[in-house]
Specification:
The complex is a heterodimer. By secondary structure, chain A is α/β, with parallel strands linked by helices. Helices cover 29% and strands 27% of the residues of chain A. Chain A is built from 9 helices and 16 strands. In chain B, helix 2 runs antiparallel to helix 3. Classes of the chains: A alpha/beta, B alpha+beta.
């Protein structure tokens, strides 16, 4: 059985997802010792060639899988510390992972998830066809997570995090990814049924609803990956120094920051621009 | 008064960083306290350690089925070996946790905390 990691990256004018994917892939490959493949599109590849990241990408990725650039008007509000902007966001083809992955068992991760440990290696041989990030774990000690970070809506089901997903390619997981596709295609309908906000398509919600349906419309914590340690986009990755990441943390979400550092743990850094600002130091770690 | 306020704010920043460092250290340790065997994943905690030790005391040492974190039944051929491995992992991780925690406790400034 082949094992490997899959990352999606479709650049927008605001965020260089390809560069983040190279960093994320390099760290994943280093700490999990597994091959990594990229799913991207022609225009993102053109940008990679122009920005000199394509050569590094060729050394980091085992396969670069080119697909049509998804058409979407999805937008999201992205904070970078105190500043914020509304930017386009191409995330609507994650359900194609089942058919695109070249591996029998795949770890699908977001490009802003940086792996610094081998914790996820323990899950390759788990007797579960599909595992998904159980929850998000705020880097701050005081919990800034709200109800809607744990549930898909005020009255909806538990929210799982599609930042990390591991699956074996078989008929069971095909059904799961087909269901994700079905939820995506009928997002408005499911938004009515589960009472979530339909204005922005979120993979986390599509995956959570699919899991809920396939679990028999009951909440089940079975088949989960460890909680995802996350720095919010209000937090700033300040520096990267010899595997130590130092953050400025907006601990009360009021633009007053405290400092904190981590090393040797996997981290989901939602402030994408701060990953880009530290690209040189992060690339040196791969 | 200004000086006193500055001291309070400094201490507040220190406390905030201290608690974040403590939390991430705890989570790093918890993440290491899992053990994979025969397609199962086990969380190494006091419940598992005690339960395994009781089974061994009762003479159940071979071909024992345990439920993993996903409630899957996992066959453990040699429970004594399994016990030794999870005990080793538990003490390795908790000793490391203790060592790092002492470093955090000894750090009396934000700068030093960030280096722990």
């Amino acid at each position: 059985m082949t094992h490997g990691i899959l990352i999606y990256a479709h650049n927008t004018r605001a965020v260089d997802y390809a560069l983040m994917a190279v960093i994320s892939a390099g760290l994943a490959k280093k700490h999990l010792s597994m091959p990594v493949s990229l799913v991207t599109d022609d225009s993102t590849i053109s940008w990679m060639k122009q920005s000199q990241t394509f050569d590094i990408a060729n050394t980091v990725f085992e396969n670069i899988i080119t697909v049509d650039r998804p058409v979407t008007d999805n937008q999201r509000r992205l904070n970078d510390g105190e500043t914020s902007s509304t930017v386009p966001f191409i995330n609507v083809n994650r359900d194609s992972a089942w058919s695109l992955t070249p591996y029998d068992r795949t770890l699908l991760i977001d490009s802003d998830f940086l792996i610094f440990s081998d914790v996820l290696n323990k899950y390759w041989h788990t007797d579960c066809d599909l595992l998904i990030g159980e929850s998000i774990n705020d880097i701050n000690s005081q919990d800034r997570m709200k109800y809607l970070d744990r549930h898909i809506s005020d009255t909806g089901v538990k929210l799982y995090w599609a930042t990390t997903i591991m699956f074996t390619k078989n008929q069971n997981t095909r059904l799961f990814f087909d269901t994700v596709n079905h939820v995506k295609e009928n997002y408005r309908h499911y938004a009515d049924v589960f009472r979530f906000d339909h204005r922005q398509f979120r993979n986390d919600i599509a995956f959570s609803v699919s899991k809920h349906i396939l679990d028999g419309y009951v909440e089940s914590n079975l088949g989960t990956l460890p909680p995802i340690l996350s720095a919010l986009d209000r937090d700033i990755l300040y520096s990267v120094d010899n595997r130590r990441l130092t953050f400025l943390i907006d601990h009360k979400l009021d633009n007053n920051y405290c400092a904190a550092s981590i090393s040797g743990v996997d981290i989901h850094i939602m402030n994408k621009q701060s990953i880009i600002r530290n690209q040189q130091q992060l690339l040196e770690l791969i | 008064m200004q000086e006193q306020l500055a001291k309070v704010l400094d201490f507040s920043n220190y406390q905030q960083t201290f608690s974040v460092q403590k939390k991430t250290l705890k989570e790093r340790s918890e993440a290491k306290l899992t053990y994979g065997i025969n397609g199962g994943i086990f969380r190494i905690d006091r419940d598992l350690l005690t339960f395994v030790e009781i089974l061994i005391t009762k003479g159940r040492t071979h071909a024992v089925v345990l439920l993993d974190i996903n409630q899957n039944p996992i066959l453990i051929d040699d429970l004594t070996l399994f016990r030794d491995q999870i005990f080793d992992r538990y003490f390795q991780v908790t000793n490391e946790y203790f060592e790092h925690y002492q470093n955090i406790k000894k750090s009396r400034s934000v700068e030093k905390l960030l280096d722990t």
